[in-house]
Amino acid sequence: MSESKGLVLVVEDEKTIADVLRMYLSREGFGVHVATDGAAGLAAAKQLRPVAIILDVGLPIMDGTEVCRELRTSGDWTPILFCTARDDEVDRILGLEMGGDDYITKPFSPREVVARVKSILRRSSGRIDGAAELEIGEVILNQDTRRVALSGGEISLTATEFDLLAYLMSRPGRVFSRDELLSHVWGYESVVGTRTVDVHVAQLRAKFGDHDPIRTVRGVGYSVDKV
Ligand code: CA
C-alpha cells in the first residue's frame, strides 16, 4: 500500500468485527492497527499516533469510555468514533467529560464506519471558507491553528466541537436547523438523528460556561448572535 491516508486504530475485542473493519479501511487506503482490549488500545494510541480511533465501548481490562477519558485528560484530541451496542449510552459517550467525536451503533455496516471515519477526518483537517480568524465578543476562533480563545485563555475543543462552533460563527445571526448543521458540519444526512447536534451544543456550552456564545432558537435550531 503506497500513499497511506494515515493509520486508523481499531480498538475492538470481537475478532470478526475487527477483521472486517481492517479489510474495509485498508481497501480505502488507511493503515490499520487493531488492539483487542482497552489498555492495549490506550498504549497503541499513545505510541502510534493514529489519525483516528474507532473505539468499542465494551472492552476487556479498560472500557472504551475510560480509554477516551484517559486520552483527553492527557491532551490527546485524536478524533474518536465510538461503537456501541447500546443506544442508551449515546449521551454519556458524547458527553462533556468523554470527548468522543461521533458514534455508531452495532450492528453497523462497515461501509458506514468508513464513511464516518472519512467524515471526522475531513472535519478535523478542513476549514470552512472565510477569514482564518473569527471573532464574536470575547471568543476568538482561529481556523488555521484550530485554537479557540475566550478572554485570552484557551478552550480545548474536540474536532467536532470546533467545526460546529466555526460553522455557527462564520455566519453570525443566521439560525441553522439541526439538519443543516448535520449535513454541513458532520457531512452526512440526518440518519444519526439530531440528538448528536444537541449533545455537542450542550458540550460546547458547558465549556464556555457563562460566556456561551450559542443561542437556541426554539423549534428552529441554533445560532451565534452578532455582537
Ligand atoms: Ca466489545
Model description:
The protein contains 8 helices and 12 strands. The chain has helices spanning 15-27, 38-48, 64-73, 90-94, 110-125, 159-170, 178-186, 195-208; strands at residues 7-11, 31-35, 52-56, 80-84, 102-105, 133-136, 139-142, 147-150, 153-155, 176-177, 214-217, 221-224. Strand 4, helix 4 and strand 5 (102-105) form a beta-alpha-beta unit. It is globular, with a radius of gyration of 17 Å. The model has no long low-confidence stretch (mean pLDDT 85). Helix 1 (15-27) packs across helix 5. By secondary structure, the chain is an alpha/beta fold. Strands 2-1-3-4-5 form a 5-stranded parallel sheet, with helices on both faces. Strands 6-7-8-9 form a 4-stranded antiparallel sheet, with helices on one face. The protein has 2 domains: 7-125, Rossmann fold (3-Layer(aba) Sandwich); 133-224, Arc Repressor Mutant, subunit A (Orthogonal Bundle), CATH 1.10.10. Calcium ion binds at residues 13-14, 56, 58-59. Residues 13-14, 56, 58-59 line the site of calcium ion.
Q: How far from one another are the termini?
A: 50 Å
Q: What class do helices, strands and sheet pairing give?
A: alpha/beta
Overall pLDDT, averaged?
A: 85
Bound molecules: calcium ion
**CATH structural class of the largest domain:** Alpha Beta
Question: What is the element layout, followed by pairings?
Answer:
Layout: E1 7-11, H1 15-27, E2 31-35, H2 38-48, E3 52-56, H3 64-73, E4 80-84, H4 90-94, E5 102-105, H5 110-125, E6 133-136, E7 139-142, E8 147-150, E9 153-155, H6 159-170, E10 176-177, H7 178-186, H8 195-208, E11 214-217, E12 221-224
Parallel strand pairs: 1-2, 1-3, 3-4, 4-5
Antiparallel strand pairs: 6-7, 7-8, 8-9, 10-12, 11-12
Helix pairs in contact: 1-5, 2-3, 5-6, 6-7, 6-8
The protein binds calcium ion.
The site of calcium ion has 5 residues, from loops.
